[in-house]
Amino acid sequence: MATVTKENIGLLHEKLTVKLEKTDYLPSFEKTLKEYSKKANIPGFRKGMVPSGLIKKMYGPSLFTDEVLKSVDRELISYLQNDKVDIFAQPLPLETDVRQLDVNNPADYIFHFEIGMKPEFQLPDLSKATITRHVVTVTDEMISGEITRLQNRYGNMKDQDTVNTEDNVLNVIFTEVDGENANAIEGGATKDNSLLVKYFKEDFRSNLMGKALNDFVVVQLDKVFDEKELDFIMQDLGLDKEDAAAKQKHFKIQITKIGLMEKRELNEEFFNQLYPNGEVKTEADFRNKVKEEIQVYWNNQAKNQIHDQVFHQLIDHTSIEFPQEFLKKWMKSQGDVVKTDEQVEKEFPSFLSSLKWTLITDKIVQENNIHVAPEEIKAFAKQQLFSYMGGPAAGGDDQPWVTDYVEKMMKDRKYVEDAYNRIQTSKIFEWTDTQLKPTDAAISAEDFTKMVEEHQHHHH
User: Fold this and answer.
1) Is 226 among the domain residues?
2) Which of 117, 142, 173 is the last residue of a domain?
3) 8 phi and psi, to 5 degrees?
4) Cβ–Cβ under 8 Å, residues 239 and 189
C-alpha cells in the first residue's frame, strides 16, 4: 500500500516522499497491456491475436513508466486534498532516476517532491490606517475654463478668407522639404493636420497673420513649436521625438482651410441641449452645475488616490513569510527557456510583491464572500461597448446586435478573465472603502496632479 510522508526542509518548505508498492501500480499496468493486445495492429498478426510477449517488448517500458508515474500523481493529489495542504503552484520533483523503473523487474519505488506551503497571516486593521482624502478646490477659473471649452465644443465653425486671430483653426498639409527652397524631399514625411494658430510659438504667430488659402510657410519644427506641441506634431508626422535632428527638419506648412469657432451663447437653448431635463435655467445655474461636475471628476480622482494609499497600507503593513527557496526553484523551472540564477534573483523582488498582493486580495475575497457573477461580466461588456460609442445605444441596450456583441465577448476567454479580475478588484476596493476613516484635506488641482505624477514617476 502506498504511503506519503512529509519532512520539513526549510521555512514553509517541505519534502514529500511517496513510497509505491508493486500492488499499487502492477494490476493497472497489466490491464493496460491486455487492452493494447486487443487493439494493436501489427503486420503479420490478426487484430487481437498479437502475442502478449511481443506487446510487452514493444510497448511495455513506456506503459510501465506511465502507470507508475500516474500512481505517484494519484497518491500525491489524494494526500494534498485529504490533509488540506495549501501549497503554491505544483509539487516539484526532486532528482529521481527514472531508469530504476524496469518492466521486467517490478519493484517497490520511492519518489521525492518538494512543496512550498502558503503562509497564515493577518490583515492590518484598515480602520486604524492613516488615510487622506484629498478634496480638490474647484475655483472660478476652473469653472470658466470648462464653460469656454463647452462653448467651443458645441460652437459653429465659420470659414474665413484670411488668418486674423490666434483663435483661428487652420487645416494644413505638412510636407518635408529640403530647406528654404521648399523642394519636397522624395520619401519625406507628409501629413494633413488641424491646429490652432495659438499652438505655434508666440513669437512666430505674426508670420501667419494675413495668410490666405493655399499660402504656406517653411519652418524648422523646433523653431516654431514649444516642447509640448512639438511632441504631438512629431508623433503625428511619424518622427522620433527623442531625435534632436528630426526636430530640426524643415517642413512646408500649406493652409487649406481657415476657420473660426463661434462660441455658443450662454442661453436657455444651450443649457437645454446640455441638460435636457430643464434643471438649468440661468447662467448661475449653469455655473453651479459645471462646478458640481468638476467636483465629481476630482472626487473620483481622489478616490483612486485613496485606493493607492490602501494598496500601500496593505502591502507595507501585512507581514507574510514565503518559502523563498522553493519559489525561486519554481520560477527557474517555468517557461520554455530555463532561467539562470541571475535572472531569477533579478525578477524575484517584483514576483514576490505581486504574489503578496495576490495572497492579500485572495484573503479579502474569501473572508468577505466577494464573487463575480456572469451577469456582471455581461453588464461590464455592455458598459465598455457604450463607452466606445460615446453613449448608450439608440433603441436601448437589449437590441439583438448588442446581445450578439456581448455573447461574442463572453466566448473570449482572455476578455472574460480580464473583466472578471477588473470587477473583482473594484469590489475589493469597495469593501476597503467601508473599513476606512479618512481625513479630509483641501488641495489645489495643480498640487494634486503634481502629487499623483510624482508618485507614478517614483514607481516607474
Assistant:
1) yes
2) 117
3) -75, 130
4) yes
